[in-house]
Design goal:
The complex is a heterodimer of chains A (70) and B (206). By secondary structure, chain A is of the alpha+beta class. Chain A contains two helices and three strands. Classes of the chains: A alpha+beta (70), B mainly alpha (206).
Chain lengths: 70, 206
Amino acid sequence: MVSLVAAEGGAGAYLDWGVVHISIANLLIILLMIVVFFAVLLIPFPKPPSERATDPPRGAEAPDRAGVDR
Amino acid sequence: MSSTTWTERVRARIEHTVPPGEALPDHQPAYVSSWIYVFGVLTLAAFVVIVVTGCVLSLGGVDWRHTSTTGHFVNSLHLWSVELFFFFFFFMVIHLWGKFWMAAWRGGRALTWVTGVVAFLASIATAFTGYLIQTNFDSQWISTQAKDGLNSVGIGAYFNVLNTAQMVLFHVVLLPIAVGLIAVVHVILVRRKGVVPPIDAQEPVA
C-alpha cells in the first residue's frame, strides 16, 4: 500500500511503498529525467541554416550526409 | 625507424592517439543530429562549472561559505551544479540511459563504455565526499550513518568518513583528478572510435 509521510522537522515528504522509501523531491527528479529522456528522443534536432536552405523537396532522395566522424 | 628516447615514444603515442588536425571534429555522421547525443558534452560543461566553483570555494576557506553571503552563493552554485541547476548527474544519467539503450559498447567501443562507467562511479564518490565536508549538521549525519556501512565492508580504516581532513583531500584533490583524467580518456576514446551509430544504422567509413 502506498502512503505519503511528512517527516518531522520539515525534512520533506516521503513516499512509502513496501520496501520503497523515497522522498518526493527525489521521485520528482527521477520522473523529470524520464520525461526529458523521451523528449530528447522525440523532439527533432534543428538543422544548421546552410542545410535548411538546401533542403530537397519532400519525397526527393535525401543527400548522403553520413560523412567521416572525425 | 623505432623511437629511441622516451620523449619520442610519448610523442609517437600522442600522435597515434590524436593525429594532428583531428583533436576536435568538424563533421559528424548524420545520425548524430539528435538531442540524445548532446548530453555527453552537457555533462562535461556541468563538470567545468563544478570545478570552477569548487576552486573558488577552496580559495575562500572552510569559514567563507558559512559567514559570507558571497561564499554561500558560490557554495550553492557548486551544490546545484551537481544536483540540479547545471544538472551534472541529471545530464550524466540521461547520457548513460541513451548509451545503454543504443548498446554503445558495440564496434570495439567496450573501453569507451567502461571508462564511462568508472567516471560515473568516481563521480558518485566525489559527490559523497562533498556532502561529508559541508561542515554542518547534514555532513555530521551523513558521515555517522555512512561509517557503519563502510566499516562493515572493511574499508573504514583506510577511508574514514569521520576524518574531515581526509575527506577534504579526497574531495578537493584525489577524486576530482580521477574524474577529470577518466573523462579525458573517455573523450579521447570517443574521438578515436567515433560516435556509436544507432542499432541497424550503417557505420560511417573513416
